[in-house]
Structure formats: C-alpha cells, structure tokens
C-alpha cells in the first residue's frame, strides 16, 4: 500500500506558512489540504473530479422486522437517485459533484445473517472486486455511501463481531425503528454473532458472514482508492463498517480516509473513535446514501480555494510575525 507522501506535505506546509493568516489559524482546513497532498502524492493537491459513489444492496435479515421501511425501498430509491430526487442528488448538485450508483443484485438479498453467512466466499470476493471499479474514470477524491434497507443491522453485527462488547452497544435506530424494532435488531445482532463466532477472527470472514454486498464493495473501493492515490471521504455508520474491516486487517489501511460526518446513529461516535477519525461535520444526519460525505466536499473545496487562492504576506505586503 502506498504511504503518505512526506515531500508533498512539506510543500503544503511551506506555502501555508506564507499565506496571509496567523500560523495554523485555518485549523482543520489546513490539515485537509495536507491530507490531500499526502494521499494524492501531489505538492499542490486538487479536487477537480470528485465522485460520490453509492453502493446499494438488499439484506435477508430485513425480513426480521429490523427496519422501519420495507426492502422494496432500496430499489425504489435507485429510481429516485436516477431521477435526481434524493437528498444526495441535491447535495452533489450544490457542489457540482459527480454521482455514480452501483447496484448489487437487489433482487437477490444476501442470506439472513442470523441463519447463515451473508455470502459465500466467491460472492464476497467478487463483490469486493466489483467495488474496486468505483475509482474508474480519473477521479481525484472518492466519497463513499450506500443504500440498503436493513443495513444498519448488518453494520452493527460487523462492529459487534470486530469489537466485541454487547449487541446493544452497536445498535441504533437506523431508519427509525420503535422500541420493539430495536429489540429485534439487538436480538438479530446477538444471534448472528453467536452463530458465526468461530469464523470471526479473520476480518474478511466477519465481512462475509455478517456484512452485506454494499459493505464488501465499499471495502474494495477504499482499498483500490489507496492503491491509486485517491483520498476517500467516508459517509456514516454503515460506510464506516467497511473501513473498520480494512483497519482490522491492517492498521494503516484507512489512513487515506476522512470521516465526512458523525451520524445521529448513536454508536457511530464510538465507531469513529475506534477508527481514530474526527468527523468534519456533526449535523444530526442519519440518512446514509453518501449525504454526509458529499456535504464534506464543500469544506474540502473551501480548504483548497484558500490554499490556492490566498495571497502570501509578500504578495499582499502584509507584515509578518514579529
Ligand atoms: O450511515 C448512517 O449513518 C445511516 C444511519 C441510519 C440510516 N441509514 C440508511 O438507512 C438505511 C438502513 O436503515 P435500516 O433501518 O433499514 O437498517 C440504509 O439505506 C442507510 O443508508 C444510514
Ligand atoms: C426513503 C429512504 C431513503 C434513504 N436513503 C438512504 N437510506 C434511506 C432509507 C429510506 C427509507
């Protein structure tokens, strides 16, 4: 895996020191520019072709009453994305960002994780490889999101499988289940992790047994982005499950990823702490579909505009530090 480019970061830091602002005063905007330089391996990082990629999948466990919405919403939302009617369409339009939707066998839900592994090895591997396609087309930043009724349950199972604790530590409201729905989610996560317990020492087996197709595909996309020097912005609770799998496989594997936001899905803050990521935004979103990652593009755009467009002390004849 490529490492962060120290030379590119040094070039960014040198320019930042000359820009007309007190040292360090742009805070995380400066860190974002250094981060892009490090992972694009460019002394002048850029974001001319950002992409929001959404992976959509269906889940057998959704039949257990773990979502406030029926599984048919997943396909219906694909139509809506195509027609520009979803929140993420409008966020992307606000920033002039490209959006691609990847459909993952919606008519063939993965197995119910409380009964069987979600996928067999061939399907898990093929889906991971398919996710690697997200970086095609010369993009310079990848935002990762998903759509899939029931996927906050499988994400919770992945976290419980990777991190232990109790099922309820990792379960939140998802699309807005009531108290009974929450109980069913907690039961499903506990049952699934107990069923597959002998398979959970390998993070890729956690992905295969407890995850879903969008989670496997996003993991592939994150890894492909790393290899091709494309920084990644992660969306919320579900997208971070893919990052958690890669981090568990190899501790530095998600160093090229930023957390776009902290979701209102309660355990997400804890997940981000485990991933070592401070979110860029905290807006109470719990939508998924890449919305929080896409919003963070606005911050990245402003960070790069400052870095590229600000005058230096010399250019503006502003006196420097005493
Ligand atoms: O990623 C998040 O932070 C998030 C939090 C709550 C809900 N979602 C979205 O809601 C859907 C899953 O919710 P559920 O209740 O069906 O498990 C799926 O389409 C996700 O994109 C996503
Ligand atoms: C309507 C709807 C839109 C979504 N977008 C992402 N997850 C979603 C879940 C539902 C239910």
Automatic annotation (TrEMBL):
Enzyme Commission (EC) number: 2.4.2.21
Gene Ontology MF terms: nicotinate-nucleotide-dimethylbenzimidazole phosphoribosyltransferase activity
EC class name: transferase
UniProt-listed GO biological process terms: cobalamin biosynthetic process
Pathway entry: Nucleoside biosynthesis; alpha-ribazole biosynthesis; alpha-ribazole from 5,6-dimethylbenzimidazole: step 1/2
Family statement: Belongs to the CobT family.
Protein name according to UniProt: Nicotinate-nucleotide--dimethylbenzimidazole phosphoribosyltransferase
